[in-house]
Specification:
694 residues; alpha+beta; six-stranded mixed beta sheet; 18 helices; 31 strands; binds zinc ion
Length: 694
Amino acid sequence: MKRKLLIALFAAISLAGQGQEDVWQKCNESLPADIRIKPSRCSDNTHESDGIIRYTQDGDINTQYHSQYIGKKFVVSPENPAELTFDFKKVKCIDYLEYVPRQAGENGIVLEAEIYVKTATDKDYRLYEHCEWKFNYNTKRVVFKGGLQKPVSIKFRILKGVGDFGSCAEMKFMKEEKENLDISVFADDLLTTLKPQTTKADIKKIKQPLLRQLAQELLQGTYATDYRVASYECYNHPVLLAKEWRTPNKHYDQFQGVTGIVIKPGKHLVMASGIPDSVSAYMNVVAWYTEKEVHGKGPDQAEITTQKLHNGINIINYDRKLEGLAYISYFSKGYAEANPPIRVHFVGGTVNGYLTPDKTNEQMHQMTATAPYCMIDVLSKKVHAVWPTDGLHEHCKADDDVSPGYRQYMNILDTLMTWEQRLVGLEKYGRIPRNRTLLSTSFFYPALCSTPLGISIPIKKQQRYVNCQKILKDDSETVWGMSHEWGHQHQINPFFCWPGIREVSNNLNSYYNVMHMGYKFEQLQKEKRKGMEEGIRHYLEDDTDDCLFEVKNIYDHAFERLGPFVRLCNYFMNEGGRPDYLPDLYEALRHSKVKKQGGNIVPFVLNFIRTASDVSGYNLLPYFQQFGFLRAKKFLIKDYDYALYELSQEELEAFCKDMEAFAQEKHLQTMPEGMIERIAHTPDVEYKRPHFEN
Ligand SMILES: [Zn+2]
């Protein structure tokens, strides 16, 4: 009986919540919003087949226009600009345009451009503005003072872009919708309080329904500010971190400012304050679930929109079909801590909430039961995970496999990331960022993978990957998998990620994380154990001329190739008395100065041998020769793209001599007899499983 009553009561509360939501949504519809004007025709003088101009008008910042780069490169310059032409029919006025740069990668981001306009009264195009923009990912706005009346065509001529390319994620032509919003009854610039002595009558006079509703609720004391009003700290841009870490195109979370607010299609009032002049702030809406593959290219199927925020009133017109979650992007190009936090108020925003370790498991279990959006943010100290809400509710169990395990799960994520960052030297060398890394879900891609957004786990695997008992005790593959993908994010490219080890060097992270989790070597997947052992045995016992990097397929013998790296690190980190061998090696590789020589990987292999020796205190050349790093051979490698291993007998001999000189200069010891075998037979180190608080 009691239970029935509770259910009934709960249903009533939910209904009330629903009603409230409808009220706000109706109010939102009454907001004025700028209108995007679509050109009647778009054309260009150069493009790549996967970078057509239509992508500048699809409302998706993940697709982009790109000047030609395959075959004969179109070198963008003031003498040879990339020209994007947008024609308009029966358009009365355009008030401003916005150039939205690509949001991942750098090529083609426009640094200098000319905007030519032609209106019904112009005979020909005339130069409206010459723009010089700094390299960043922010939207650039060009205002047509007084409005561009009866526009016929606008030409965007790219004179200079990163890498002598031109690219453009979105080109928006906008018409302003002006309406005075009367905010005189509010006491603060975020509209969270009323001026003293505000009366019902004052509020009745407010014409704008959304502001009237807000003022009414504030007066009654019924307005809930949780999640709707919050502060957001500034972070260093993930691209900057990748540059510092030498992990090109591997980015930490680009959605640091988690809001827990659902954005439905339509208009929204977002108040902002404290945005400094020197840094831009944006609001992203991410539709994590998209019903279908967006690009048909793999796991990155989230639909992302971006809107610049200004201090004061921002009317967001979210013109997508699917609802998404809001994120505040507030990134600087270094010295993030020097920038003050900004404050944002989503007026009447729909609250989804997000999980954090300061909440109780019971609170979070309630949240995953009632959150309105199909996905929910999980925010631990180091990881931002986004999971389907109902899957999390059902499967996020503690290590007893029964009780809700949200806190334990977040502790596990943080610990795995701590180990990960420690192994690659970020901790020892003071490089740990405040930024989190992103773990999201793919609905269509069947395997775990590293994406431009972070790492991604297929929805079908959620049950295993959020269950603490499985991660901690039953399923070493979950730890291996996540650590492998995070390993990709930390791979120093190409100095410890040359073709031939792209799916290998990051498995050092997997191996160590699995072992630190207290798994025994025997509990590793059979294929991995056998592979590592066979790799060692083959190069040690067989009289072989094989080269370790002679692979025709990315995953060919991946674990055989891993064996020699694991044993070397195990030896020095345990018996060899250099517990920081790997962190030191990563940091040393981070300072590599080797130049590319065509597609030949040999310079990177030699650099690795030198660096690994230097960090160990030994001339390790004999070890690497034994394990097939150096062979006088030439062959093609297929590891994502094609590369070459080319080393002549003369070059090999010259390198051996060089190593001798290097060893003398660095006072490296000579490997005594039997040391190769000792390293190769270093036992796996077993660790005790840590305790994870729930
Ligand atoms: Zn991989």
